[in-house]
Design goal:
Length: 496
């Protein structure tokens, strides 16, 4: 038996002395150095008691060791579980209790809080920017070879939590085959090679920055300019030496806001990819007018990896997300029945890219994953007669802010728990930078409660990006005849 993900992404680079990660301080980790570091970290995981199938939770800064830790989890046969660094103690507690990991890796500065959550149930190891974390220090003394643990293609490689309409986050179980098949499709389609240099400014705890960007780079042997975060000046200075960038639409609107973005600046770039949130047609057009390059928009989800992409060769149409990836089927349905081309319906997807179900949630899995293998995305779309897909809306109650998904129900639950609040409705309004931003309409029981007092009680429970940017105190929520809150009415009222 083999370990298809390790064998395809990491093993081939054992003797490859080309640069893999180029960091902000100018230092470089070569591919061979990466393979060795992965092995050292796999030894630490094994010594810490990680057995095949165990979860390794990681809430850590964006470091070369964090990427190597992903590789180490794969090599040790573990299940990698990355978490947003913005999550608060209460959010983290839920993930750790639900996933029951063997090891939790966190930023050294959070070790006390994380140990308090884990108790005796999981080992806590740390990473730190200066290399002083216990995981890194322990790894330094380990052998640079590790016997790769065999896994079946359907065994889990990763567990990624995605918020849900019920307010409870669900762990999407992703297998070795799910991740590898998608990386292969994207690398082929976007013609990524060892000659590419990728601008990597995305976080590495989500599908986009981790799997779409890193797995394809590893598969192709490309160089990655690994940035701590998104910074316009750094990106502008790196574009002339790079060939490829992957980003959320906010990256493109922010770049367009800088006069240094010109046709000359991007002369060496061969591909700009956008995804995770809708790219406005006007951004697409403005980017082409300024640079001569047509952004390639693709569409995906945590549960499915990437689903569709505009073509590399061929027309990249603004406002569409392109064609189903090779090996991936997309159907548009109404009540589960396929509709005619050109009609709006639910986007459903089937293929090797589609996840294995939700961790510990068989009922949720059964609701969203049909016996036929089709996954119900919650996105509404149209398929043109040539197969091109356009997303026209979402059936799920979801806000996407700067590429981060925010489920209103989760925030409403926290607001409704505030003493003196009767009920609330959280909704998204257009936002020039983030695409959408979060507002909350609140009905009070206790008229003396102020919006500041509500915010002060809500904020400690939720990551900063989920915080409502404004609380609108109102006498009643608009409802339809069925009693359902009309968020479209709230949106229309407060969009300005
Ligand atoms: C940061 N903030 C956000 C935010 N990001 N608020 C709302 N939405 C966001 N996305 C907060 C900060 O905490 C800060 O709070 C304030 O907003 C301003 O921060 P900033 O300095 O402007 O933000 P920045 O650090 O530049 O981050 C913005 C960003 C980042 C767009 C670069 O959010 C980002 O990298 N987004 C990418 C997310 C992503 O990878 N999504 C892929 C999911 S996978 P304060 O306290 O200062 O007010 C997926 C599947 C698929 O969806 O198809 O890919
Ligand atoms: P996540 O659950 O974080 O993986 O986010 C997946 C969701 O992001 C999808 O269900 C879509 O609603 C949205 N999404 C991803 N890519 C695009 C895109 N190109 N255009 C519009 N929405 C997108």
């Amino acid at each position: 038996m083999t370990n298809i993900l390790y064998d395809a992404l990491i093993a081939p680079h054992a003797q490859n002395n080309a640069a893999f990660l180029v960091l902000d301080d100018g230092t470089t980790m070569t591919y061979a150095g990466f393979v060795a570091r992965v092995a050292q970290l796999a030894h630490v995981l094994k010594d810490a008691g990680v057995r095949p199938g165990d979860r390794v939770v990681v809430q850590a800064p964006k470091l070369s060791d964090t990427i190597a830790l992903y590789g180490a989890a794969v090599q040790a046969g573990a299940v990698y579980l990355p978490l947003n660094t913005a999550y608060t103690q209460s959010e983290l507690t839920y993930f750790i209790e639900d996933a029951a990991p063997a090891v939790v890796v966190c930023d050294a500065k959070d070790a006390g809080n994380v140990s308090a959550i884990c108790g005796d149930n999981a080992r806590v190891l740390t990473l730190a920017k200066d290399g002083s974390g216990s995981l890194s220090v322990q790894a330094n003394d380990q052998p640079t070879r590790f016997d790769t643990v065999a896994r079946r293609p359907d065994d889990l490689a990763a567990l990624l939590y995605t918020s849900g309409t019920t307010g409870r986050s669900k762990g999407a179980m992703l297998s070795h085959k799910n991740l590898l098949s998608n990386a292969q499709s994207l690398t082929d389609l976007w013609q990524i090679t060892k000659d590419d240099r990728l601008i990597h400014a995305l976080p590495i705890f989500h599908t986009h920055g981790l799997f779409v960007a890193i797995n394809t780079a590893l598969l192709a042997g490309a160089q990655v300019r690994f940035m701590a975060g998104f910074d316009v000046d750094t990106i502008i200075s790196e574009i002339p030496a790079s060939t490829l960038m992957m980003g959320v639409p906010t990256f493109y609107t922010r770049l367009l806001g800088d006069a240094r973005l010109t046709r000359d600046l991007v002369a060496n770039m061969r591909l700009f990819v956008s995804g995770s949130a809708p790219l406005l047609a006007e951004t697409h057009t403005a980017f082409e007018d300024r640079t001569g390059q047509r952004i390639l928009e693709r569409y995906g989800m945590t549960e499915t990896n990437m689903i569709t992409s505009n073509p590399f060769d061929g027309e990249r149409l603004a406002g569409t997300v392109g064609y189903a990836l090779p090996g991936t089927e997309v159907q548009i349905t109404d009540n589960g029945q396929p509709v005619a081309d050109g009609e709006i319906g639910m986007i459903e997807v089937r293929g090797d890219n589609v996840f294995q179900g939700y961790w510990n949630m068989p009922d949720k899995t059964a609701e969203e994953l049909r016996d036929t293998g089709f996954f119900i995305t919650g996105d509404l779309g149209i398929k043109a007669d040539d197969g091109r897909i356009s997303i026209v809306g979402r059936q799920k109650d979801l806000i996407i802010s700067g590429g981060y998904n925010i489920y209103p129900k989760e925030i409403e639950d926290v607001i409704n728990d505030v003493e003196g609040v009767l009920e609330s409705a959280v909704f998204g309004v257009p936002h020039a930078d983030f695409g959408e931003s979060v507002l909350a309409a609140v009905v009070l029981e206790d008229a003396s409660l102020t919006d500041e007092a509500i915010a002060a009680q809500v904020e400690p429970h939720l990551a900063r990006f989920k915080h409502p940017r404004r609380y609108v105190i109102t006498d009643a929520l608009p409802r339809n005849t069925m009693g359902k809150v009309q968020k479209n009415v709230l949106r229309a009222e407060h969009s300005a």
